Amino acid sequence: MRAAVNALAERHGIETAGLCRSLCMTWDEIAALSADPLVTIGAHTVNLVMLRKAAEADGRAEMAGSADAIAAKLGVRPAHFSYPVGDPTSAGQREFAIARELGFKTAVTTRPGVLFPEHDVHLTALPRISLNGEFQRLRMSMCSPPAPPPRCSTVSNASTRRRIPARQASGRCIQLISGIAGSIQPNPTTA
Fold first, then answer.
1. How many CB atoms lie within 10 A of CB 179?
2. 6 lies in a domain?
3. Which of 164, 22, 21, 102 is nearest to 83 (CA)?
4. Quick one: which H or E segment has residue 66?
5. CA 145 → CA 135, 142, 163, 170, 189, distances in Å?
Protein backbone atom coordinates (compact mmCIF):
# COMPACT_ATOMS: atom_id res chain seq x y z
CA MET A 1 0.00 0.00 0.00
CA ARG A 2 2.87 2.36 0.80
CA ALA A 3 4.21 1.89 -2.74
CA ALA A 4 0.78 2.68 -4.20
CA VAL A 5 0.46 5.86 -2.11
CA ASN A 6 3.98 6.96 -3.07
CA ALA A 7 3.26 6.33 -6.76
CA LEU A 8 0.00 8.27 -6.55
CA ALA A 9 1.70 11.18 -4.78
CA GLU A 10 4.51 11.23 -7.36
CA ARG A 11 2.02 11.18 -10.23
CA HIS A 12 0.40 14.30 -8.76
CA GLY A 13 3.63 16.12 -7.97
CA ILE A 14 3.55 15.65 -4.20
CA GLU A 15 6.95 15.14 -2.60
CA THR A 16 6.25 12.86 0.36
CA ALA A 17 9.78 13.12 1.78
CA GLY A 18 9.40 16.90 1.93
CA LEU A 19 6.11 16.56 3.75
CA CYS A 20 7.75 14.24 6.25
CA ARG A 21 10.64 16.66 6.79
CA SER A 22 8.25 19.52 7.50
CA LEU A 23 5.63 17.66 9.54
CA CYS A 24 7.38 14.78 11.33
CA MET A 25 9.78 14.97 14.24
CA THR A 26 13.37 13.84 13.80
CA TRP A 27 14.99 11.40 16.21
CA ASP A 28 16.98 14.29 17.69
CA GLU A 29 13.74 16.20 18.33
CA ILE A 30 12.16 13.11 19.89
CA ALA A 31 15.24 12.60 22.08
CA ALA A 32 15.05 16.21 23.28
CA LEU A 33 11.35 15.83 24.02
CA SER A 34 11.88 12.56 25.87
CA ALA A 35 14.40 14.24 28.18
CA ASP A 36 11.53 16.13 29.82
CA PRO A 37 10.44 14.28 32.99
CA LEU A 38 6.78 14.84 32.07
CA VAL A 39 7.13 13.02 28.73
CA THR A 40 6.92 9.29 28.13
CA ILE A 41 7.62 7.89 24.68
CA GLY A 42 5.62 4.79 23.81
CA ALA A 43 5.70 2.28 20.97
CA HIS A 44 3.06 2.16 18.21
CA THR A 45 4.24 -0.34 15.48
CA VAL A 46 6.66 0.18 12.63
CA ASN A 47 4.19 0.56 9.75
CA LEU A 48 0.90 1.61 11.42
CA VAL A 49 -0.60 -1.85 10.89
CA MET A 50 -4.10 -2.74 12.08
CA LEU A 51 -2.72 -5.59 14.18
CA ARG A 52 -5.85 -7.72 14.46
CA LYS A 53 -5.98 -7.95 10.66
CA ALA A 54 -2.33 -9.04 10.41
CA ALA A 55 -0.92 -12.52 10.90
CA GLU A 56 0.12 -13.07 14.52
CA ALA A 57 3.83 -13.23 13.70
CA ASP A 58 3.61 -10.04 11.63
CA GLY A 59 1.75 -8.20 14.38
CA ARG A 60 4.26 -9.32 16.99
CA ALA A 61 7.13 -8.20 14.74
CA GLU A 62 5.47 -4.78 14.24
CA MET A 63 5.05 -4.27 17.98
CA ALA A 64 8.52 -5.51 18.93
CA GLY A 65 10.17 -3.72 16.01
CA SER A 66 8.72 -0.40 17.08
CA ALA A 67 10.00 -0.84 20.64
CA ASP A 68 13.39 -2.02 19.34
CA ALA A 69 13.74 1.01 17.04
CA ILE A 70 12.90 3.44 19.85
CA ALA A 71 15.30 1.69 22.22
CA ALA A 72 18.08 1.84 19.61
CA LYS A 73 17.56 5.56 18.96
CA LEU A 74 16.79 6.78 22.49
CA GLY A 75 18.61 4.24 24.64
CA VAL A 76 15.46 3.32 26.58
CA ARG A 77 12.98 0.62 25.68
CA PRO A 78 9.41 1.95 25.80
CA ALA A 79 7.25 0.46 28.55
CA HIS A 80 3.96 1.54 27.01
CA PHE A 81 2.19 0.82 23.73
CA SER A 82 -0.62 2.42 21.73
CA TYR A 83 -2.50 0.25 19.24
CA PRO A 84 -2.76 1.77 15.75
CA VAL A 85 -6.39 2.74 15.14
CA GLY A 86 -7.12 0.93 18.43
CA ASP A 87 -10.77 0.12 17.83
CA PRO A 88 -12.25 -3.39 18.23
CA THR A 89 -11.49 -4.25 14.58
CA SER A 90 -7.79 -3.47 14.94
CA ALA A 91 -6.87 -4.70 18.44
CA GLY A 92 -8.34 -7.59 20.40
CA GLN A 93 -7.48 -10.28 22.93
CA ARG A 94 -4.62 -11.69 20.83
CA GLU A 95 -2.94 -8.28 20.59
CA PHE A 96 -3.49 -7.57 24.29
CA ALA A 97 -1.72 -10.86 25.10
CA ILE A 98 1.16 -10.09 22.71
CA ALA A 99 1.66 -6.69 24.35
CA ARG A 100 1.93 -8.43 27.76
CA GLU A 101 4.32 -11.06 26.35
CA LEU A 102 6.55 -8.34 24.87
CA GLY A 103 6.81 -6.73 28.30
CA PHE A 104 4.73 -3.60 27.85
CA LYS A 105 3.43 -2.38 31.21
CA THR A 106 0.39 -0.76 29.62
CA ALA A 107 -1.23 -0.45 26.21
CA VAL A 108 -4.04 1.84 25.14
CA THR A 109 -6.83 1.35 22.66
CA THR A 110 -8.88 4.21 21.20
CA ARG A 111 -12.00 2.92 22.88
CA PRO A 112 -13.35 5.87 24.85
CA GLY A 113 -13.45 5.63 28.60
CA VAL A 114 -11.77 6.35 31.89
CA LEU A 115 -9.78 4.06 34.14
CA PHE A 116 -11.16 2.33 37.20
CA PRO A 117 -9.50 0.01 39.74
CA GLU A 118 -10.88 -2.96 37.81
CA HIS A 119 -8.56 -2.10 34.91
CA ASP A 120 -5.59 -3.33 36.95
CA VAL A 121 -6.08 -6.78 35.40
CA HIS A 122 -6.43 -5.38 31.86
CA LEU A 123 -3.39 -3.10 31.63
CA THR A 124 -2.78 -3.92 27.97
CA ALA A 125 -6.37 -3.13 26.96
CA LEU A 126 -6.93 0.31 28.44
CA PRO A 127 -9.45 2.87 27.18
CA ARG A 128 -8.47 6.49 26.78
CA ILE A 129 -9.90 9.93 26.27
CA SER A 130 -8.97 11.40 22.92
CA LEU A 131 -8.14 15.11 22.76
CA ASN A 132 -7.80 15.38 19.01
CA GLY A 133 -10.73 17.75 18.64
CA GLU A 134 -13.14 15.24 17.17
CA PHE A 135 -14.14 12.57 19.67
CA GLN A 136 -14.13 13.99 23.17
CA ARG A 137 -17.35 14.30 25.09
CA LEU A 138 -17.79 16.12 28.37
CA ARG A 139 -19.20 12.99 29.99
CA MET A 140 -15.99 11.14 29.04
CA SER A 141 -13.84 13.78 30.71
CA MET A 142 -15.37 13.07 34.10
CA CYS A 143 -14.88 9.84 36.03
CA SER A 144 -18.22 10.22 37.80
CA PRO A 145 -20.33 13.15 38.94
CA PRO A 146 -17.91 15.60 40.53
CA ALA A 147 -17.53 15.28 44.26
CA PRO A 148 -18.08 18.51 46.14
CA PRO A 149 -16.03 20.58 45.87
CA PRO A 150 -15.04 19.54 42.34
CA ARG A 151 -11.44 20.00 41.32
CA CYS A 152 -11.26 21.15 37.74
CA SER A 153 -8.46 22.08 35.43
CA THR A 154 -8.40 22.88 31.78
CA VAL A 155 -6.18 21.47 29.09
CA SER A 156 -5.47 23.36 25.91
CA ASN A 157 -5.97 21.13 22.90
CA ALA A 158 -3.16 22.07 20.51
CA SER A 159 -4.94 20.75 17.42
CA THR A 160 -8.10 22.83 17.88
CA ARG A 161 -7.01 25.49 20.38
CA ARG A 162 -10.20 24.80 22.36
CA ARG A 163 -10.16 24.46 26.12
CA ILE A 164 -11.36 21.11 27.35
CA PRO A 165 -12.35 20.48 30.99
CA ALA A 166 -10.53 17.70 32.79
CA ARG A 167 -12.00 16.64 36.13
CA GLN A 168 -11.20 14.10 38.77
CA ALA A 169 -13.76 12.73 41.20
CA SER A 170 -12.33 12.03 44.65
CA GLY A 171 -9.60 9.74 43.30
CA ARG A 172 -12.13 7.09 42.25
CA CYS A 173 -10.46 6.74 38.88
CA ILE A 174 -7.71 8.26 36.79
CA GLN A 175 -7.73 9.55 33.25
CA LEU A 176 -5.46 8.46 30.45
CA ILE A 177 -5.48 11.23 27.90
CA SER A 178 -3.76 11.29 24.56
CA GLY A 179 -3.55 14.37 22.37
CA ILE A 180 -1.52 12.59 19.69
CA ALA A 181 -2.32 9.03 18.68
CA GLY A 182 -0.59 7.92 21.83
CA SER A 183 2.76 7.56 20.20
CA ILE A 184 5.56 9.23 18.36
CA GLN A 185 6.06 8.40 14.70
CA PRO A 186 9.56 9.49 13.71
CA ASN A 187 10.32 11.06 10.39
CA PRO A 188 10.98 8.09 8.08
CA THR A 189 13.53 10.08 6.09
CA THR A 190 15.79 10.25 9.16
CA ALA A 191 15.07 6.77 10.52
1. 16
2. yes
3. 102
4. helix 56-74
5. 20, 7, 20, 10, 47
